[in-house]
Amino acid sequence: MIEAAAVKQKTKLEFTLCHRMPERSFFYKGRQFPVCARCTGFYAGYVALPIFTFSIWEPSLLLVVLLMLPALVDGLSQAYMNRESTNWLRFITGLVAGTGAIAFAALLGKWIGQLILLIF
Fold first, then answer.
1. Of 70, 75, 64, residue with least CA distance to 110
2. Bridge partner list, 31
3. What is the distance, to the nearest Å, from the Cα of residue 96 to the centroid of all Cα atoms in its chain?
4. Would you say residue 95 has pLDDT above 90?
5. Which of 78, 96, 81 is nearest to 23 (CA)?
6. Distance between CA 82 and CA 38 in Å, rounded?
7. Percent helix, strand and coil across the chain, each rounded to 5?
8. How far apart are CA 109 and CA 113, in angstroms?
9. What 3-state DSSP class applies to 86?
10. Which of 3-7, 12-16, 111-115 shows the lowest mean pLDDT across its residues?
């Protein structure tokens, strides 16, 4: 009986760190994306990981921080200045910030790897 109930239950992908507000999300064929426009950009930016992991491009730490600033400014100005952004602006700032975040993760990973090699 438990199995029958489990089969009827629809599997749903959920992301708890995203607000998933419909007015701040993209829709495709009438269905809402599982994350908001900014988070969609973040996840799309993570695709750049191989560029940084394989040293195709090694940005400076300053540039990495600058890449994350537009999303911070856009998000904070919406929250505290009564300003409404568009979904495409949210997506683009999220994309740039996601690229910066993944570049930071790659830089941090390389730094930790070099530290381990120095110790041993």
1. 64
2. 28
3. 9
4. yes
5. 78
6. 18
7. 65, 5, 30
8. 6
9. coil
10. 3-7
DSSP assignment of 7-60 equals HHSPP----TTS---GGGS-EETTEE-SS-HHHHHHHHHGGGHHHHHTTS----
CA distance 120 to 101: 29
What type of residue is 51?
I
Spatial neighbors of 107 by CB under 8 A, at least 6 apart, are 52, 58, 59, 61, 64
Q: Is the pLDDT of residue 89 over 70?
A: yes
- Per residue in 14-53, pLDDT tens? 656 888 899 999 999 999 999 999 999 999 999 999 999 8
β partners of residue 27? 32
Measure CA of the first residue to CA of the last residue in the chain; give whole Å: 57
pTM: 0.81
